[in-house]
Amino acid sequence: MAFPATQAYLTWVVFLVAPPSALGASDRIAIGDFAIDRNEVTIGDFSTFAEATKLKTAAEQEGGGREWGSGWERRPGWTFRTPYGEPPLDTLEPAVHVSWHEARGYCAWVGGRLPTREEWRLAAYREHGGGSAAGFVTGTTYQYPTGATPEGANTNDDDAWARHAPRGATRQGVNGLYDMGGNVWEWLADREGGDALTAGGSWWYGPDKMQEESMQWKPADFYVAYVGFRCAYDPKS
Ligand SMILES: [Ca+2]
Ligand SMILES: [Ca+2]
């Protein structure tokens, strides 16, 4: 069946495929000439995307995500909907068991893209003003996304969270962002062959992995309990 490419039809198509305007657009922080999500993408956010686009993630199709045990072990039923095999306590927990490709698809759907390494560096460690109310000094580069120390982040240090924490539970960091250090690793846009870069460390590791030099390459089709993402946006997106 052929549809006429009228303006009305095109408007209808855009309306159908476009995400709700509130999703992903409500809490972005401007960093120079781009913006970035204040928080990691949540289970609730990603569920809306998956339902609207009829996405079945690789973890769902292939029998569950992975956790580190004696090497990488598959965990049946562990997906972004049920990160540890059971419904989450809170849908504001980060979406994990999501591959780089799936993360990129989500960001495109909300009108953004994955952040680059350079954007991540600027957002995570150099204060541009969004964190001034939280005590960060504009123009200062910090060692950790939480400032001079890793205090307040969710790592494997002695803190309030045995696994990942829901949105907004940890201490606000540089530029007013949350969880740029710790909680879950985050996919970046940068690719090298079949690998993609991840940044920030996670609840599984110590605070050293929150630092810029600790970014890690991982297979882009990898999906595990420790890796999530957030999106970046160009002006006017
Ligand atoms: Ca912890
Ligand atoms: Ca993180």
Automatic annotation (TrEMBL):
<keyword id="KW-0614">Plasmid</keyword>
<dbReference type="GO" id="GO:0120147">
    <property type="term" value="F:formylglycine-generating oxidase activity"/>
</dbReference>
<protein>
    <recommendedName>
        <fullName>Sulfatase-modifying factor enzyme-like domain-containing protein</fullName>
    </recommendedName>
</protein>
<dbReference type="InterPro" id="IPR051043">
    <property type="entry name" value="Sulfatase_Mod_Factor_Kinase"/>
</dbReference>
<dbReference type="InterPro" id="IPR042095">
    <property type="entry name" value="SUMF_sf"/>
</dbReference>
<dbReference type="Pfam" id="PF03781">
    <property type="entry name" value="FGE-sulfatase"/>
</dbReference>
<dbReference type="InterPro" id="IPR016187">
    <property type="entry name" value="CTDL_fold"/>
</dbReference>
<dbReference type="InterPro" id="IPR005532">
    <property type="entry name" value="SUMF_dom"/>
</dbReference>
<feature type="domain" description="Sulfatase-modifying factor enzyme-like">
    <location>
        <begin position="29"/>
        <end position="232"/>
    </location>
</feature>
